[in-house]
Amino acid sequence: MSEKRFEELWDWQEAENLALEIYQVTSRFPSEERYILVSQLRRAAISVFSNIAEGCGRGTDKDYSRFLIQARGSIQEILAQLHFSKIKKYISDDEYKILYQRYNKLAAGINNHIGFLRTQEKE
Fold this sequence. Notes:
de novo design (two linked rop proteins); mainly alpha
């Protein structure tokens, strides 16, 4: 298990930056979405970096992997909600494309991290 602090991890840093982006983007959503879509998007965005941090604090690579898988699931939830937001015209096509690409890059980084941890488990 790595002794790295979660704040030093690219995955965590990018997830936190993206959560800030989600907060900024959703601040422009209609007020009737405040307790539905806005809340759901923000919770999912927070869940990504929170799961990375919590997994980092666990004692085993297996536990860490499990939390990274949870973070990856939250990314898929965000992507679905962003797609819906684009359909509803709460975000522009350009905003959607940028966030979609960044979240996919983050998911790929998390996948690589999971793969590395699984390799470590076998050693």
